[in-house]
Amino acid sequence: MPTYAYACKQCGHRFDAVQSFADPTLTECPECGGPLRKEYGSIGVTFNGSGFYRTDSRAGAKTAGGGSDASGSAPAPAPTSSKSEAKASPASTGS
């Protein structure tokens, strides 16, 4: 079950509550009876596995699918095989 953080709007009391997803949100402070608000903190997300690379989350990393990086420059052209160039262009062999 998830743990939710609450803070009282009136007295500032802060506490955590373990609640089910189906449980209603708490609305009354246990200290003073004032109104409560849920607090949301940031969470860290780590992607692990063979499909994720360390450079994927860095600024300037190239996007998947041949997109451009954060600086807006165009992606480098894909290298071609020397065998396909020789077959495709017989005039370039010097004969």
Automatic annotation (TrEMBL):
Query: Which ranges are annotated Low complexity under compositional bias?
Result: 70-95
Q: Give me the ranges of the annotated region Disordered.
A: 56-95
Q: Which Pfam families match?
A: Zn_ribbon_8
Give every Putative regulatory protein FmdB zinc ribbon domain span.
1-41
NCBIfam families assigned to the protein according to its UniProt record, in alphabetical order: CxxC_CxxC_SSSS
The protein, known as: FmdB family transcriptional regulator
